[in-house]
Write a structure and sequence with these properties.
This protein is an alpha+beta fold. The protein contains four helices and 15 strands. A hairpin with a 2-residue loop joins strand 14 and strand 15. It binds magnesium ion (MG).
């Protein structure tokens, strides 16, 4: 992806209120999937739960139909396990004890998008893996806290990256956050490392998805033969957290919350 200054849309208060509804639904879906996650369930089962819940709530699963190199994406969520970072395709794979499971979900409600991801651990995992998951979430929180009027996209990137640098984690470079609104992916690109420069200045009404992807190894990734799954090149475990936020004069507001988790630094995943 290329950092571009084009087509950044600013949302009004009433449009942000509509985006809160989409965000709330996405948060509800991720809560539900967190409850359903246990050894033996398949990633396809999780996808069916998500799609049914989104449609029953009057939403549209926004990932379905996203174009890819081998045709459009066909699922409501992405489920990425262990060394898979993002865009894992749901199917027959069964969740097992010890898995690190990143789930990304998106929904459209009345034309407005919400997009969020959480990483869950199943049962016992090594301490360094647990720390990676928690610190990737802290990287997201740091990026959100830096998303203030007058700061820049580069300030968000630097805040996210600083958390990774404390631990020597790999930070994905080709993938990052994005503007969001009536499209899932709008300008600007929001990198998770500062090498990308200062970038655009943040203004009231900008809505962004902030989504660090950290690894226990290097930053390099490869896309698997399915055309979607992004996995670490060195096989190291990865984590991914994402919130959709609105930049308001009084500070950043997280939109992908549902009242059970309104704080910047809430409970870590299961
Ligand atoms: Mg996203």
């Amino acid at each position: 992806m290329i950092v571009s200054e084009r087509r950044v849309t600013l949302k009004s208060r009433s449009q942000i209120e509509q985006m809160r509804r989409a965000g709330r639904l996405v948060a509800d879906v991720l809560d539900r999937l967190g409850e359903a996650l246990r050894p033996g369930i398949t990633t396809g089962d999780l996808d069916r739960i998500a799609e049914e819940m989104i449609r029953r709530s009057g939403g549209i699963p926004s990932f379905i139909g996203v174009p890819g190199p081998r045709g459009p994406y066909r699922h409501a969520i992405c489920v990425s396990i262990d060394d898979e970072v993002v865009h894992g395709i749901p199917g027959r794979r069964r969740i097992e004890e010890g898995h690190v499971v990143s789930i990304d979900a998106g929904a459209i409600v009345d034309g407005w998008h919400g997009d969020a991801a959480r990483t869950f651990t199943i049962g016992r995992v090594p301490a360094d893996v647990r720390l990676l998951v928690d610190e990737t979430r802290r990287g997201m929180d740091a990026g959100i806290a830096a998303a203030r009027v007058g700061s820049t996209i580069g300030d968000i990137a630097a805040a996210v990256e600083a958390v990774a640098l404390e631990h020597g984690y790999g930070v994905l470079r080709e993938y990052g956050g994005h503007g969001i609104g009536t499209e899932m992916h709008e300008e600007p690109f929001v990198p998770n490392y500062r090498g990308a420069g200062r970038g655009r200045r943040l203004e009231p009404g900008m809505c962004l998805a902030i989504e660090p992807m950290f690894t226990l190894g290097g930053h390099e990734v490869q896309v698997r033969d399915d055309g979607w799954t992004v996995a670490t090149a060195d096989g190291s475990v990865a984590a991914h957290w994402e919130h959709t936020i609105a930049i308001l004069p009084e500070g950043p507001e997280i939109l992908t919350v549902n009242g059970r988790d309104r704080s910047l630094l809430g409970e870590a995943g299961v």
